[in-house]
């Protein structure tokens, strides 16, 4: 390593240390780390943002193999001559708490995966959900399917998907509501198992699973998530098992007659 390069690195380390020691900002902000796009040294900046909360030095267009984390409550902000640490994160790094409609997988009321004060009402399968917001001080509760007063942090349930790892994640402690995480994007929709079913992870995996229905007896039973399908329960090898069957096109399952009829 050339002497001037060594001096440059020492100067950078001292500058970074001085910058971070003076930080006393303790603002708590939820970051959307998936939205961050890592930059490259362009020959003009002395620092380049390495993440939403860190930066690395550049020597011209050469990348220096060091990363400096911004102090508590500080975020990396893009600048003209150099990226710096400051109290306000870039817009791309802030996780939005606004809820957007999704395509309904079933009828009913669903929690929002990112904002515990919001919930979605689905009037029909394949239609867009309608977003509603609870009053101030209230959060949505899946047990009552309504807004309840928030008395503790535990009342506010949101979903955190692992970055870079596709998986299924349960909504809080529920075995009925779950989210499909693609490892890249922030989830926008909470799914719900049909009545009589619970989400069960595969025996060979802690990341993937499916809704497993429990038959209450022999016969046909409705799929509450899909009126055009039903469960056929029967005994096989001494135990009660089921098949999920689809009704013919243009028909729905009739709970009274226990077979598919025209709509």
TrEMBL record:
GO cellular component: extracellular region
Domain of life from the UniProt record: Eukaryota
Key word Signal present: yes
Signal sequence, start to end: 1-23
Start and end residues of each Chitin-binding type-2 domain: 101-158, 212-263
GO molecular function, one term: chitin binding
Record-linked InterPro entries: Chitin-bd_dom, Chitin-bd_dom_sf
This protein's UniProt keywords: Signal
Protein name as catalogued: Chitin-binding type-2 domain-containing protein
Taxonomic placement: Eukaryota, Metazoa, Ecdysozoa, Arthropoda, Hexapoda
